[in-house]
Amino acid sequence: MGVALGVAENVLALNGTPEAPQGVIDRLALFHADVSHRSGFLYKNDGYAGGRTNPCGQQPERLRYRAWLHASNGFCHLGIIALRTRLIGAYFFARFAFCKRLLRSTHGDGMDVLVVGGGGREHALVWALHRSPSVDKIYCAPGNAGIAQIAECWEITPGDLHGLARAADKHAVDLVVVGPEAPLTSGISAVLDQVGIACFGPTAAAAILEGSKAFAKSFMERHNIPTPAFRIFHDLTPAVEFARDPEWGFPSVVKADGLAAGKGVIMCAGPDEAEQAVRLCMEDGAFGAAGSTVIIEQCLVGAEATVMALTDGEQLVVLPPSQDHKQAYDGDQGPNTGGMGAFAPANDVVGAAMLEQITERILRPAIDGMAAEDRRFQGVIYAGLMLTESGPSVLEFNCRFGDPEAEVVLPLIESDVGELLAAIADGSVPDSVAISDRHAAIVVLAAEGYPGTYRHGDAIEGLAAADEIEDVVVFHAGTSSDDDQIVTSGGRVLGVTGIGDNREAALAAAYGTIDKINFPGMHYRQDIGRRDQEKE
Predict the structure, then answer these.
(1) pLDDT for position 532
(2) Is the dihedral of CA 203, 206, 208, 213 positive or negative?
(3) What's the 3-state SS for 492-519?
(4) 3-class SS at 138?
(5) Which of 109, 267, 499, 513 has the highest count of CB atoms within 10 angstroms of its CB?
């Protein structure tokens, strides 16, 4: 057993490469010799005889490699079928990574969890996990000043997939919860799997549903999921010609195909604006490679809403619907942002019958369609919707929790969030999730200049007083520490979430708390949740 565990540790050190280093070849050969001796099993092939013979230091490289293959037969004799090809290293790696994952689960009563990201959504995830009985220790990379108060933060960027995996492995992390989309579309799930760590979030093959709008639109067309009429263009000239005279008229929408940090969607009132938007994407490279392909889409009229669901790739648990406010200023004026506020549940916008329709016509076909295309989707699927007179239509799919929607939905989940996310990462989903009957509303406090060039480094006052208020959570989005002072470091700085027995009470709690917070140039919308209020 000791030899086997030693081999496992060496194989895990390969970082998933199929080539075995000298030490692994030798130790596998020794293990094979030991198994052969105990069982009387001998294997002969191509001139190499001797399950009992230790070839270490005696064989040329060709036979050393063959010895490695022969060593696999020792494992086969123990009931593990090894592929005798150059992929055998990856096979052993996966087997021992699985064993290592089982061993991780026994190191304490609760899980150690890493949250990837450093915004308001990630603070909400850390906050929810901090309240989970199943969670012992929380890490966050890179985190922010608010997250650092309840989690250990690592200075690792979300794009450093292997750095995250190494750190998680070193600290014996049980579960990684991925906040932003970029690490998911880049394949962090597979990298973590190589070191035997569970990941809450879809594989890269499934995350393409957000990573490529062209894929998503074509996918919806293939699976009869309602979405606005569209055309996809890879070349500038035909894109400009169509943009100036779309078959559905104006207004229209021009979208960059890839990830553009929420900025690759441009509303166009007429031909000149549409042409300018296309050229901005394809000619000026405003969104980099993300804009090399564009989608020109019909602009629909109706109320917008978000519905997120947890899924193991087969079953769905639908979370409370929410409504985001994208424009920077009151009355839905100004440029689009990452979101200036939200509320949940949005029952007056998405009633029970509408939610059932969204589940059966959109979420269920999406999950089934991804599975049918060998892209099983595990994690949270986010449907950004336009509710038209003819029914709900999908504006976008995301492969992670929304921001700021997460900051109003997560506080309403009464189930153990750590246990819930771990179960989904392991490929199962509970039949139901306990949801509070209360309401939540978030108001985002933004830096001067956001969503354009914004100021940063300003001291934030009043946080201690705000943290003392009952039924309010201040989620940090763009903050950092400067000595003992918390300062602004992002466009969206804070999200003040109020919780109440109805929406108006939740909004009153949030707006009342904002009066205690201040930093230079702070601005926020004063009409969050009041666009379509419930009639009390």
Answers:
(1) 55
(2) negative
(3) EEEEEEEEECCHHHHHHHHHHHHCCCEC
(4) strand
(5) 513
